[in-house]
Fold this sequence. Notes:
- This protein is α+β, with helices and mostly antiparallel strands.
- 36% of the residues lie in helices and 16% in strands.
- It has a five-stranded antiparallel sheet, with helices on both faces. The protein has a two-stranded antiparallel ribbon with strand order 6-7.
Amino acid sequence: MPAAHADGPAYVARGQAVDPERSAAEAGRRARPKLRRYCAANRLDRLGTLTYRGSGNHDAAVLRENLGEFSCDLRSSLDGQPLPYAWVPEWHKSGHGLHAHFAVGRYIKRSLIEMAWGRGFIDIRLIGDLPVGAGAVSEARIAATYLSKYVAKTFSDAGGRDLGSHRYDVAQRFQPERLRLPGRSAHAVLEDASGLMGGQPFTQWSSLENPEWQGAPAIWAQ
């Protein structure tokens, strides 16, 4: 009896890929939509930056530890209230080391953020300059676009400087729920999804419109 084997690519240890640049680009491609969905689902509409004082920090492990302490201290300052968040590291172009971009979904006094960080400087702002009638989801999508840009950058051009396995992080208890909607037609499923999302999609794509598509029939809507 022939030996059984698993289809698909074999696991490759981090740093051992034949084409590291392509591997990093693919990892960034997978990470971006996950981060965007998380931000939109949790209405993360406020963007901030955390910077170190002095000569900065050049150790990614220290940054992760500091950000873990920051999130815990910030949550404690809010009486332990649940706090969905997302953060992404970035290297300073000036050689100052690492800083972090983060997003939250509620108003927090600047003084509380400064106290929780305590290692340098902070910036925090609500997403603005949106069309009239745009709501929290639209604001969160803008924030998600900014963060996903940074997360792509951490995978693609870290310049050989190791950021470890965590190129971004989110609060773990707030992952968006996946819903499966059965229907007799694509139109019926889209109508049900629109009802759940509170509006019709403003853009969509169908595999029927792509003659080169070789997978199962698919429709993407946003």
